[in-house]
Amino acid sequence: MTARRPIAALQRVAVAAAALACGLAIASCAPSTTQASPPSSASTVSSSPAPSGPPVTVPGLSSDAASSPPESSIVPPSPEPTPEPTPEESTPEPPPAPEPAELPQIDDPADDFVQTEEPAAPAPAPAQLTGGKVVVIDPGHNGGNAANPGIINKLVDAGFGETKACNTTGTSTNDGYPEHDFTWAVANDLKPLLEAQGVTVIMTRDSDDGVGPCVNERAAIGNNANADAVVSIHGDGVQSDASTGFYVMTAVRQPAGAAMSAQSDALARSMRDGLVSAGLSTSNYLGSDGLWDRDDLGGLNLSTRPTVMIESGNMRASSDAALMSSSAGQQKFAQGYANGILAYLASR
Ligand code: ZN
């Protein structure tokens, strides 16, 4: 077990803040509730109240995206044998339960995010990538979510008998640059990096102006594709300029058993190392060494494939925000994601 950081108090506040900022449906964004919390916590932190009424039909959207897998997933990949897991390292202790609290305003000017100007590290050589690997990239949220609360607040299966909101709006920088835009940009920078190495890439959404898909539908895309890796891209929204860096989340509840969970943990470590190799820093406020096992994320709890969800940085911290909202920064994240995915695939 890894000792908790001495900033546990800040972490608890950050958890509460992030839960409020990010919403929980997809289980993505932010640190949210513990499994003991009632499902109603999802709606209480939604950024928009959910008006009742008929679902809204949005021009250009995508009910297609929400109800069916993207075009590229039409041809299912051939299943591959599941390798035996390697002995697992000790996992970090679950974080303390977030406290229901008002949004804190932490005004610490400290800024220890190391933002290098060096070019991103090149992707590792794809020596073993000859087996038709399939990777599902899940860009969190969607551009049309905010205008369609009736759709995204609908409760859906979140695994283990629980329900959560279909999806959430996600967070944004203090300047208003939205998380869905960031995740979409990184996903589209990442896709060609993987395809150049022979990887078949499936995206869980095909535009940034649609609604959803719901968290359970996103998980199903990875499961149905029998994906070798499923990587969900997010950005955190903790109202603290001092809280920076990325963390990689996995499901502590092992929805597909211990062997698959071990593969997810291996993927998580590879993603952490890949992002670090691209010049990015691990979180200084949540998780341990850039890793965090969670029990409350529907996207992870519904997945039967090696899956991680990554809060790429804190969009409410100025240094991370600058990086996450710039094209150069997004390319750096994409390279880090590619480094991690390719290294993981090569190790299988
Ligand atoms: Zn998110």
Write a structural description.
The chain has 348 residues and is an alpha/beta fold. It has a domain at 130-346: 3-Layer(aba) Sandwich (Aminopeptidase). The protein is 31% helix and 13% strand. The protein is built from ten helices and eight strands. The chain has helices at 8-22, 40-44, 63-67, 149-152, 179-195, 215-224, 258-277, 298-301, 318-324, 327-347, and strands at 134-139, 155-159, 162-165, 200-203, 229-236, 247-251, 291-294, 307-314. The strands form two sheets. It has a six-stranded mixed beta sheet, with helices on both faces. Strands 2-3 form a two-stranded antiparallel ribbon. Helix 5 packs across helix 10 (327-347) and helix 7 crosses helix 10 (327-347). The longest helix is centred in the last third of the chain and has 21 residues, at 327-347. The chain is globular, with a radius of gyration of 18 Å. The two termini are 26 Å apart. Mean pLDDT is 76; it is low at 1-10, 12-28 and 30-118. The structure holds zinc ion (ZN). Residues 22, 28-29, 140-141, 170, 179, 234 line the site of zinc ion.
* CATH H level, superfamily name of one domain: Zn-dependent exopeptidases
Under the CATH scheme, which class of one domain?
Answer: Alpha Beta
Which CATH architecture of one domain would you pick?
Answer: 3-Layer(aba) Sandwich
Instruction: Classify the fold: give the CATH topology of one domain.
Output: Aminopeptidase
